[in-house]
């Protein structure tokens, strides 16, 4: 079975490619390397012993997308990660996010709906819930007006897939609404490697800890939480990668109850920014230099998952703790800076 992984050189994508290859799938990666490096292929190969196929292309080019599916007519499933993903940047550059995150999705679905049967896993996000009324967040929580253009692209993306599945029964799709991925593969062959200044908390922490960044900015300590900082559900990226493989198998085995399903993917536990900092200090033995600054546009107070549906229906459960994930992130940071 050949599986296309878009954005497969990125953080979550590369770890998912590893898990797919471990299960015996043939993987082809599409990535434009706008926020990833082709060197990731070497890390994947070192772990699995098999080099995935790779095509460097931009999914915004419709002719290239059509050409790809003409050449790879045997693609049995698609896991779609390729997207711009920084909340703060999306507030500053909304049109970039709408173009990159939505036109690419449409072009992929246009090709998949021409197949007799197609299996599609969409990389969605807990941002679709906005600031949810109740914690933990279930899949039935209302989708609220997005707090950022990034979040809005995930909401609209889900609507595009839902509307397409309604009229195209041959398309079988699952959206995975995941929370905050972190960590790295235990081999330290692949991990989170943002180009430029990190937009996510954990790589900024590890880069600060190793001396690459002078100081971590904590965006606000006046939120209505126990220590005043935002709360998120941090999930080890390998646990998250496994969820994608389990979801894909569900579709390919015909076990899905409807042709469009949604699952939360998280640990079910919320951790504040300060708790994440303290986790780093525990596993590294390093005191982190941080400073509290003003709130950041688009940030919500708290979001953590009710994962009981994924646990029960998919038979999937996050296994790693916050400290486990942080330890792997620190090991990765130390390796790439050595």
Set down the secondary structure blueprint:
Layout: E1 2-6, H1 11-22, E2 26-31, H2 40-48, E3 53-56, H3 62-71, E4 75-80, H4 87-92, H5 94-112, E5 118-125, H6 149-167, E6 171-178, E7 180-182, H7 201-209, E8 216-219, E9 231-232, E10 234-236, H8 237-252, E11 260-265, E12 271-272, H9 273-284, E13 290-293, E14 302-303, H10 308-314, H11 322-337
Parallel strand pairs: 1-2, 1-4, 2-3, 4-5, 5-6, 6-11, 7-10, 8-13, 9-14
Antiparallel strand pairs: 9-12
Helix pairs in contact: 1-2, 1-8, 3-5, 5-6, 7-9, 7-11, 9-11
EC number: 5.1.3.2
Subunit structure: Homodimer.
Family: Belongs to the NAD(P)-dependent epimerase/dehydratase family.
Cα gyration radius (Å) = 19 Å
Contiguous runs where pLDDT drops below 50 for at least 5 residues:
none
Count of individual helical segments: 11
DSSP strand tally: 14
Instruction: Report the average pLDDT across residues.
Output: 96
As a percent range, the share of helical residues equals 25-40%
Derived structural class: alpha/beta
Distance between the termini: 38 Å
**Order of H and E elements:** EHEHEHEHHEHEEHEEEHEEHEEHH
User: Roughly what fraction of the amino acids lie in strands?
Assistant: 15-25%
> Which strand order do you get reading across the main beta sheet?
3-2-1-4-5-6-11
Main β-sheet description: 7 strands, parallel
Shape verdict: globular
Protein name: UDP-glucose 4-epimerase
Keywords: Carbohydrate metabolism, Isomerase, NAD
Catalytic activity: UDP-alpha-D-glucose = UDP-alpha-D-galactose
Subunit structure: Homodimer.
